[in-house]
Amino acid sequence: LLAPLAALTSAILIALIIWVSRQRMSPRSELQLGLKRNEFIAVYQPIIELASGRCIGAEALARWHRPGGAAISPDVFIPLAEDNNLIEQLTERIIRVSAGELGPLLRGNKDLHISINLSSADMASGHFLRVLQEVLPQAGIAPAQIWLEATERSFIDVERARTILDQARARGHPVAIDDFGTGYSNLSLLEALPLDTLKIDKSFVAAIGQDASTSVVVAHIISMANNLGLAIVAEGVETREQESYLVHAQARYAQGWLYARPMSAEKFTSFLQDNARTDAQTLTPAPGTV
Ligand code: C2E
Ligand code: MG
Ligand code: MG
Ligand code: MG
C-alpha cells in the first residue's frame, strides 16, 4: 500500500513544483517553454468568394493551448511574442503545422490556399521565406497556395519590406495587406508595396449599417482597391446586411462568423466537403432546365 501512495505523493509534488515554477516564470520564459512543448496550434477560418459562396481557402490563426493554464488571446500573446523576439519562431511553427495538417488537402486541390500572418520581425529578417522554401516542396504545396498577410504596422522599414515581398512574390506567393485602415499612411503604402490583396479590417465592416460615413469609406476603399487591381477580402463579416452591402460595393471575398468561426484542420476538411456539395448544387442546373 505504501509504494503506490509514495508514487502518488511524488507525482502530486512534481505537478505542484511545475505549477509553482510556471507562476513565477517571466512571459518570455513561458512563451519559450510553450514553443518548445509545441503548445501553439493553428486554427483555420474559411475565406468565401461572395459571388459563388465557394470556399477558396482559410486563414491560419495561432492559438496557445497551455495545459492547466487559462486561455490567452492572440491579441495578448502575439504582441508578447513580438516584444520578446519570439515571433519568428511562432511564424515558423504555424507554417510547419499548417503545411503538415493541410498538406493532403492542398495537394488535392490546387485552387485552395492558406493565409499566414506575418509580423514586423518576419518582414525584417525574411526567415519565413527560408522555412517556406524547405517545407513546401516536402509537403507538395505550391507557393501560390500560401498567401502572406502583413499588417501596415509590420512595414516599419518600407524598403526592407518591399525587398522581402518582392522575393515572396517572385516565388509565387500572393501578398495581402492585413487590417487595412487601422494604421496610417495607408494610401502611399498601396503604391509603394507589391500587393495582390487588401483585407479590410473588421472594425470597418462592423460599422456597415451602424455608421453611415464609415460605410461610405468602406465602399470607397473597395472601389479604390478594385481600380488598383487588388483582390478584396472583408474580414469580420457577421450579418447578411454587411454581406449584401459588400456585394453591392463589389468586394470579392469575405471572412467572418457569418460563414464560419476558426476551426481545427479536421473540421475544416469536412467544412470544405459540405461547401463543395452546396456549391455543386447551386451551379448544376436542376433537371429539365438547360
Ligand atoms: P487578423 O489577422 O486580422 O485575424 C482576424 C481576426 O478576426 C481573428 O482574431 C479572427 O478570429 C477574428 N474574426 C474573424 N471573423 C470574425 C467575426 O465575424 N467577428 C469578430 N468579432 N471577429 C472575427 P484572432 O484569431 O483572435 O487573432 C487576432 C490577431 O492576432 C489577428 O488578426 C492577427 O493580427 C494576430 N495573429 C493571429 N495568429 C497569428 C499568427 O500566427 N502570426 C501573427 N503574426 N499574428 C497572428
Ligand atoms: Mg490576418
Ligand atoms: Mg486581418
Ligand atoms: Mg484584423
TrEMBL record:
Q: How does it sit in the membrane?
A: Multi-pass membrane protein
| Entry EC number(s) | 3.1.4.52
- Which compartments is it annotated to reside in? Cell membrane
Keyword annotations for this protein, in alphabetical order, are:
c-di-GMP, Cell membrane, Hydrolase, Membrane, Transmembrane, Transmembrane helix
**Domain EAL, chain residue ranges per copy:** 24-276
Question: What catalytic activity is recorded?
Answer: 3',3'-c-di-GMP + H2O = 5'-phosphoguanylyl(3'->5')guanosine + H(+)
Q: Which domain of life is it from?
A: Bacteria
TM region(s), chain numbering: 1-20
Q: What is this protein called?
A: cyclic-guanylate-specific phosphodiesterase
Q: Which organism is it from?
A: Tianweitania aestuarii
Part of the intact protein present: 214 to 503 of 503
